[in-house]
Amino acid sequence: xxxxxxxxxxxxxxxxxxxxxxxxxxxxxxxxxxxxxxxxxxxxxxxxxxxxxxxxxxxxxxxxxxxxxxxxxxxxxxxxxxxxxxxxxxxxxxxxxxxxxxxxxxxxxxxxxxxxxxxxxxxxxxxxxxxxxxxxxxxxxxxxxxxxxxxxxxxxxxxxxxxxxxxxxxxxxxxxxxxxxxxxxxxxxxxxxxxxxxxxxxxxxxxxxxxxxxxxxxxxxxxxxxxxxxxxxxxxxxxxxxxxxxxxxxxxxxxxxxxxxxxxxxxxxxxxxxxxxxxxxxxxxxxxxxxxxxxxxxxxxxxxxxxxxxxxxxxxxxxxxxxxxxxxxxxxxxxxxxxxxxxxxxxxxxxxxxxxxxxxxxxxxxxxxxxxxxxxxxxxxxxxxxxxxxxxxxxxxxxxxxxxxxxxxxxxxxxxxxxxxxxxxxxxxxxxxxxxxxxxxxxxxxxxxxxxxxxxxxxxxxxxxxxxxxxxxxxxxxxxxxxxxxxxxxxxxxxxxxxxxxxxxxx
Length: 507
Ligand code: NAP
Prior knowledge:
Elements: E1 5-11, H1 15-28, E2 32-36, H2 45-58, E3 62-65, H3 79-91, E4 96-100, H4 101-105, E5 116-122, H5 130-139, E6 144-150, H6 157-167, E7 171-176, H7 181-186, E8 194-198, E9 210-211, H8 212-217, E10 229-235, H9 243-254, E11 258-264, H10 269-281, E12 287-292, H11 297-306, H12 313-318, E13 323-326, E14 332-335, H13 337-350, E15 361-365, H14 369-380, E16 384-388, H15 392-402, E17 405-407, E18 419-422, E19 447-450, H16 459-466, E20 470-472, H17 474-490, H18 496-503
Parallel strand pairs: 1-2, 1-8, 2-3, 3-4, 4-5, 5-6, 6-7, 8-9, 10-11, 10-12, 15-16, 15-18, 16-17, 18-19, 19-20
Antiparallel strand pairs: 12-13, 13-14
Helix pairs in contact: 1-2, 9-18, 13-14, 13-17, 17-18
C-alpha cells in the first residue's frame, strides 16, 4: 500500500523548543517530522544528534533540511558546513536529508542516494522550464524527488498534479501559496510521498501550508484514499468560506468518500474556463462537483452551455449557476441551489408548500444577485413581488425582466405585504446596528426573511420578533443550499442538523 505521509516541519532554534514541538506534532497526529535546521543560529552536530534522537524515539520517520538562503531558506553559513551537517544527520539516524538540485549538480557526493530528497523550489512562480527541472531531478536518481513552486493562478496547480499522478510515491510536487492548496490536499489521493502541514497557524515553513489540525479535522486527511471523489468551491475570495468545513463534515457524518477544497479562481471568465477545462481533461482527478460563488456564477452558466451540458431552466432564467456536476465522462451540468434553498427556508417556516406562495404579496429589498434569484423563483410560483432598491434603476430593470413591481426605498414606508425579504447586505457584520427597514413599518402578521447570515440574529430579525412577526434567518438558507448541493453531489440525504450546528459553531 502506498503511504503518503503527513509531514510536519519544525523550525529548530534550540533543543528545548524542538523537543516541545516534536511532542506537540506527535500529539496532533503527524506521520513524519521535518527538522528545519536553517532557522536556528549556528546549530552544531551534537545538537542535531540529540534532536534526531528525539524524533526517532517517537517512531516517526525524519527528514533533515537545512535550506540555504539562495534557495529561499534561512541558512547563511558555508556550503561545506551545511553538507557536513546533513551528512552527520544521516550518520545519526535521520531517514532522509533534503538536498537542493543546484547543490547536487555542484558535485555534492558521498550521500546514500536512497536517503536523499532532491529538491527544487521557485518561490516566485511556476517555472518556465518546469519539465527540464523535473528531468534533472529524475536524472539525480535519488530516493525521492521534490519540486515546489508558487502558483500565481489556479491553473498553475495542474503541472504539480500531473507529476503526482505520473510520479507516484517517489515524488513530492506542490504549488505554494493560497492558490496551490489543492496540490497539498490531493497529494494523498494521488499517492505522492508526503504533504506538509504546519504545526500551528503562523508556523508554516512555506506559503499556503494548511495546519495539521485543519488537515485532519476540516479536510479529513485520514479518510482520503485513491478512490476519494473530489469537490470544491470556486470563488474569489474563498479563504473564509464555510463551505469546505460544512461539506467535508457532512461527508464524514454520512461516511461518503469525498474531499471538498477551496479553489481560489482569481480572475475573470478566461481563468474560470481554463481551470474547468483542466479539471475536465484530467478524469483521474475524480472531480464530481463544484460550488460556484462570486464572481463566477454567470461564467459557470455560459461554460455549461458552451459544453452542451444541461442547465436547470430556472438557473438559466436567473443567469447564475452555483452548482456544477461533472460525470465520469467529464460532462458538466449546471444548477442553482440558492433560490431553492431560500424557498425551502420560507416554506418550512410558513408551514406551507411552494405552490402556496401563489398570490402572496412579497417585498424584496435589494436588486443584486440574491434578489434576482428570489425574484425569479417567487414569480415562477406566482407570488406578487415588488422590488425595492437604493438604486431605483436596478430595481426597475430586474422587475421588468421578471414582470413584477418596483419602487425606491421610500416605498417601504407604506409596506403592505405578507413576506418581506432582505437581499441587501445591510445589517451584516461589522455594521450590525443597521437594518434595511425601520422597525415601525414591520407588522405582526408578516413573515420576515433576512438572507444575511453573519450575524445570525440581525437587527431586522430582532425587531421583527419584537412586533410578533415570524422570522426566517440567513443560516437556514445557507444550510438549505449547501444541503441541496450535498445531495446532488453524493446522492445521499444531507445531514442537515449537523450542517446547521457547524454553521452555528456548535460542532
Ligand atoms: P449584491 O449583488 O452586491 O447586491 C447588494 C444589494 O444590496 C444591492 O441591491 C445594493 O443596492 C444593496 N445595498 C448594499 N448596501 C446598501 C446600503 N448601504 N443601502 C442600501 N442598499 C444597499 O449582493 P448579493 O450577492 O445579492 O448578496 C446580498 C446579501 O445576501 C449578502 O450581503 C449576504 O449577506 C446575503 N447572502 C446570503 C446567502 C445565504 O445563503 N444566506 C447567500 C448569498 C448572499 P444598490 O443596487 O443600490 O447598490
